[in-house]
Amino acid sequence: MTDFSSFIQDALAASFEIQQKLQENSSSLYQKYTLGAGGDISYGVDLMAEQIYLSHLSRYAKIDSEESGIIGDGKYTIYLDPLDGSDNFKSNFPYYGASIALCLDDETLVAIVVNFISLEVFVRTNTDFYKTYLNSLTCKQNILENSSLSTIGIVEKAYDNPEKIALLKENGLKFRSPGAVALSLAYASYVNYMLFFGTIRVYDMKAGLYICRGLHIYQDDEITIISKDLDLFAKLCKLYNKEQF
Q: 31, 121, 154, 227: which could form a disulfide with 184 (CB 3.0–4.6 Å)?
């Protein structure tokens, strides 16, 4: 597969269909099911989104989904989080989306992260990097880095790491913790920094980290540190006793 345009079009069509279903707010979306492959309980909304993505994308590759695990076979693998931020959806907190990565072996070829609330879609391939919108796919915008304006970072898993969070407060580093990892990775080029405490699941990492390509990144099993600013990146690495290079 060398031309990814049809894959991207189908992924965006599926995402738009899911977004429309979410607007219906059917009670079936909140029905509780069993433990998914990613370790969280699946709900109707997760399975609905998964099925729509499967119907659009399964012809391209086998799919490794956070809900059902590996489906199908093929040379390529699609790593899929059909609803990134499920708890936010169930809590009516407007920050949730989807994460899609088309990969060959360990190499990500296409990364797509969708925000179902703002309708923003971040798309990255080896040759393209842009933002579009589910309701206006002909609009393609460059990813802007508003370095002079951003005043906050994004921290995921903040609730589970009070001592590590205290270091940010002591150093005057403001942050938000919205609770959807792939989305937060996609916004890393906009904010001052992005931190994740722990290990990012493959369903979010494959797309999210590929979208962050070109930023300063440190990652191990304990922490992921990302920033567009080298000095701030070095400061964060020092705070958490990590070697940045």
A: 154
